[in-house]
Write a structure and sequence with these properties.
heterodimer; A: alpha/beta; Rossmann fold; six-stranded parallel beta sheet; 13 helices; 8 strands; 39% helix; B: 412 residues; binds thiamine diphosphate; binds magnesium ion; Alpha-ketoacid_DH_E1_comp (chain A); THDP-binding (chain A)
Amino acid sequence: MFRRPFASRGIRRSIHLGTLPNSHSPIVSSLSFFKSVTPDGGIIPTFRVLDGVGRPVEGAQIPEIDEPFARRLYENMQLLPTLDTVLYQVQRQGKTSFHMTSHGEEATIIGSAAALELDDEVLGQYREMGVLLWRGFSVDSVMNQCFGNQEDTSGKGRQMPVHFGSPKHHFHTISSPLATQIPHAAGVGYALRRSDRRSRNIAACFFGEGAASEGDFHAGLLLASTIPSPTLFIARNNGFAISTPSTEQYYGDGIASRGPGYGIDTVRVDGNDVLAVIAAVREARKRTLEQGRAVLVEAMSYRVGHHSTSDDSFAYRQRTEVEDRKRIDNPIARFRLYMESQGWWNATEEEELKARLKADVMKALKRAESLPRCELGELFTDVYAGEEPWNIKEQRAELTGLLKKYGDSWEPWRTELGRFKNKGQDLTSV
Amino acid sequence: MLPTRRIPTLVSRPRRSFSKPFQRHNSSVAEPPPAGGHLPSIANSKLLRTTRERSLRTQGLSWNDEQAESTTVRETRKMNVYQAVRDALSIALTKDDNAVVFGEDIAFGGVFRCTMGLAEEFGRERVFNTPLTEQGIAGFAIGMALMGHTPIAEIQFADYIFPAFDQLVNEAAKIRYRSGGQYNVGGLTIRTPTMSVGHGGLYHSQSPEGFFMGASGLKVVIPRSPIQVKGLLLSAIRDPNPVIFMEPKILYRSAIEQVPIDDYTLPLGRAETLVEGSDLTLLTWGTPVYHCETALHMLNDPPPALAPHIPESLRKAKIELIDLRSILPWDAAAITESVNCTGRLVIVHEAGMTAGVGAEIAAEVQKRCFLRLSAPVKRITGWDTPVALQYEKFYIPDAVRIVDGLVETLAY
Ligand SMILES: Cc1ncc(C[n+]2csc(CCOP(=O)(O)OP(=O)(O)O)c2C)c(N)n1
Ligand SMILES: [Mg+2]
């Protein structure tokens, strides 16, 4: 099954030395080690089409996009940080428990979303809210999940903020344990290929360069390449896993260097260049489907925000480093300059868009924070399908009994019950 | 995903300075009466030893230095739990050249600040970040321990210990046995933050200690306070067996004590009786220790809202509160002795009921104390569901559930 051995200088082929039983590896007589996967022994290059100020790089092929598509891209790239900024503030005010922003990765996330088909199955890590936005998951739905209210369709208020999920948008529910979605994605891809109606779809799996250190990363890529499965792996290399810089995460050449180890097509792309991301992911998607086998994209960017609302990144990186990065290379500004150069965008439109997005987000926020949580009884549902085991039944009854006893009189419980739809009566009045 | 430097307080749990505290010592802070009435919280728990005198009288404390017997010259310093962890690690690193500390994000201090400044003090060769792989961290630590070193590895959250489960259960636990005693990983210690904070949801609230109960060869320890953390962690590091040391994360900041600054240990495998009593044994570990303390208060002196549910006749009941501390192996002798005297046992833990640690203890106690039992062993635990974010206050056993269970068991 060997297709392409690692290319390296200094390996001289020699046919007369014979062959190996289980490999087409050519036999050579000179001892030579290698540690690069590129033909010239260098670092894997990064594909880019727009320079830092939005001008096409010499010789670059700009992917085909028309004005309406470009505008949609840009709007989503702006909506994402608009939501992030508000949700971050809202957490700071104590209204929600948590948030994680995508600041700095807007091009990677929106660009890949735009290159996928809307019904490709997406398995994300947690910083991929933009994929859902691209697919029309509403601002209300985002807010409702983050507030964990009765309209949180992602998980009935059970999961932390940003743990979205929506079968309608072919977006599998986020799980906090890192990398677990990577082998799932191989299985999802395989299942797609086995379903007639879905055989034109692929599975697309997002993960961070940190998560790629987990054993599940290896398991997932190994299975999707070997079995094989039409699964596209998109590594978001944003330079950090919480405080750990990517230089302490791996010794090799990023995540991309691992692709050839699994024998799969691999590309590294400038994750701050939305057009490069679109071009790379479109081509990667095409190959995934044609070959029915894993493909790997590594998108390079920089995590401009803190890891999450629980993190203060200035404890481990210089404020100036972040400010410099923001100034030198802002993925949104880069694309805006390109749009302007095409005559597709101008300052007035920019102002209007920002005002409109802010208003939409604030309206959704107002609504979401006014809604109660789901009914308290949802604590016990969805553990099993089918017949409910005795222990769950009995425990629901036990809580019900306690609520009947203390729910009215014990103020801390009464206050807490008041936050649920029907204030716990779904349990106590049956 | 919830590395948090600002560990939020669990609930706006009502506070109180008692007039008749059951463990004597005074640190009353005047505060407006909170909504739920006057009750103790972690912050003003009487179980915490906030004076030098009480600190030095910690049960079972054994000094690990030349002037072993003397307490008069000993000093203490005010520390919270993460500072006590750091203090223990610093002593281990200072006294044992083979000791190393590593894990995800620990070089800058760790997401809970437990390793703050250690990399600067002891160098990056001994205190270092690992790539993000729990199975790798555990396996690497086992390798070092096999060579007689003292790896002290951190798993960032107990919820994320499962990728390391194979290494811990099949390797760390069994190496001594499978090699006929020739190899061992006694030097291994795995530290990990555990239990709920009130808004962690499914994957930042779990208490997975029960999953290790069947892994003979491992020890599992869960401390309740800074003094306990330091002494038990130093014991864990020096114990000739691999130890999983689970630190209740809500306590990192909220539990504060005067902690002896010298090197000392506290015994593994021994429960500690925190309040003596003869009518019922209340057994727990970690965070719920403080909910149990609150519940004892509610029982003795119920706030008006609870009074109707707490019969006068039971309010004088003498409850024996025991902190199990060592979960594996657990102190069956101490629990048996207590239950044989009280005839009643209530076990409180945050993990779900089914096959939780309480199940094992209940089974053993009914065997050992069968004829002495006046009531069935009661377990007050999380439900057999995942921990759901918005529902967490009705998932985690709180003081009201505990006092209700006490009344039920006393009145049985
Ligand atoms: C199995 C597991 N271990 C540890 C964590 C804690 N954790 C949450 S996010 C994170 C860093 C992830 O970094 P990366 O994969 O690069 O993604 P990024 O946050 O940069 O998008 C860590 C260590 C976790 N959620 N799951
Ligand atoms: Mg990252």
